[in-house]
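Attaching the record inline, Q. Sequence:
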Amino acid sequence: MRIAVTGTHRVGKSTLIEELEEQLAEYRVIDEPYHLLEEEGYEFASPPCLEDFLEQLRRSMELLEEEGSARNVLFDRCPLDFLGYLLTHEDSDSFDVEEWLARVRSTLQTLDLVVFVPIEERDRIRIPAHEDPRLRAEVDEKLAGILFDDPFELGMEVLSVHGSTSARVAQILEHLGRGECRR
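Structure, as predicted:
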């Protein structure tokens, strides 16, 4: 299967991917576009500007395309993440989602499952004081709307996970028909 883990920042996506990597040893992990772009020399603004999110969207689609028909892949983020950020960005009026939808749909069709990690009532990740909690909540809400209301008719299979990291892993393994976690 080709699985992407999506959600706003600091909800535990990368931690979940690390645990899944242990449980699904035959899977290869593809790091999130932000880290890959940084390694390639891309310099992000602080806070990220619209172009930064567009670049991450481009890179995310490239990753899905590059991996083509490869099976057993876990993606840390997918194009949906960046749609969420772009549509909630203060400069979102400059972003034409229609211009991107055909390619986004095409690349998302290569995924078998999108795992959504929402913000939970009791946050599991400590948020630094310099981060904007309003933006984080807006992106979470936008992603949930894209995934569950499907306004862009993406037709994705989505699994929303909750609880501790081990509970989230167990929910994914159960969804995959894998049963209990290995320890």
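The two ends are 22 Å apart (CA to CA). The longest helix spans residues 50-66.

More tomorrow.
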